[in-house]
Amino acid sequence: MSAINITIIEDEEDIQHLLTYNLEKEGYHVTGFESGEDGLASLLAEPPDLVLLDLMLPGIDGMEVCRRFKQNAGTRDIPVIIISAKGEESDIIAGLELGADDYLSKPFSPKILLARIRAVLRRKAEPLPDNSTAIQVDEMMLDPRKFTVTISGVSLALTAGDFRLLHYLASHRGWVFTRYQIVDAIRGEGYVVTERAIDVQVAGLRKKLGDFGHYIQTVRGVGYRFKDA
Predict the structure, then answer these.
(1) Which domains does the chain have, with CATH numbers?
(2) Rounded distance, CA 22 to CA 17, Å?
(3) Is 7 within 8 Å of 52 (Cβ atoms)?
(4) I want to staple 162 with a disulfide (CB 3.0 to 4.6 A). Which of 85, 113, 146, 158 is the partner?
(5) Helix (H, G, I), strand (E, B) or coil at 167
(6) Is residue 87 predicted with pLDDT exceeding 80?
(7) Which residues contact 146 (CB under 8 A, 6 or more apart)?
(8) Residue 97: pLDDT above 80?
(9) At what angle do helices 160-170 and 195-209 cross, to 10 degrees?
(10) Are 41 and 33 in contact (CB under 8 A)?
(11) Which SS3 state, helix, strand or coil, does residue 144 take?
């Protein structure tokens, strides 16, 4: 079995060497870059299996790298884990809203990083939802066979994570789920994530759904549910 390819974009040489050492010890193949321009060019030319991305980079910063990477049709589904000294809630939210799959604030334990990497790669390898039956909600159609959502025949640009969340809630209409139940269902049991990250994803999904966003209801103090018929 070929090694999993991980690209690190990190301008601090000591941190890049530390990450490379720990990752290669686990059997990963690692490529490192110190600038946003060089890293992004490599990502688009030869997409890896996973990206570790610093935010404060010379030239193109990490946020812009993430934005361009996630807007590219050929690379948007490749996992990105942001690793940054910028640990404020607003920074974390901004990174997740751009499509990053996880966010680690420096300093962090290499063991925690490895656990996060394994969790993200497991999620990427998960099959589509088992239920192959399309779900119709008024003018909105969810088709798990095609992994698409359309409203009045117009296709929405949703990420795989958005689709899993929407499909999970819509296939259990009226049921109330806690944030951690949602994480376990759509991202795999044991995935480490903050409650705020789920709130951010729900808010972004509502925005993408437009007039249908109100179907995802907040249950104060508990979590979320899809509006019952």
Answers:
(1) 5-125 (3.40.50.2300), 135-226 (1.10.10.10)
(2) 9
(3) yes
(4) 158
(5) helix
(6) no
(7) none
(8) no
(9) 90
(10) no
(11) coil
Question: With 90 as the cut, is the pLDDT of residue 154 above it?
Answer: yes
Distance between CA atoms of 26 and 23, rounded to whole angstroms? 5
Beta-bridged to residue 7, according to DSSP, are 31, 51
C-alpha closest to that of 169 among 146, 196, 137: 137
* Residue keyed to tokens 């935010």: 55
DSSP 29-98: EEEEESSHHHHHHHHHHS--SEEEE-SS-SSS-HHHHHHHHHHSTTTTTS-EEEEES--SHHHHHHHHHT
Q: How far apart are the C-alpha atoms of 36 and 227, rounded to whole Å?
A: 43
Assigned token pair, 143: 């088709």
Q: What angle do CA 136, 139, 144 make, to 5 degrees?
A: 40
Quote the tokens at residue 142. Answer: 């969810």
Residue 205, number of CB atoms within 10 A of its CB: 21
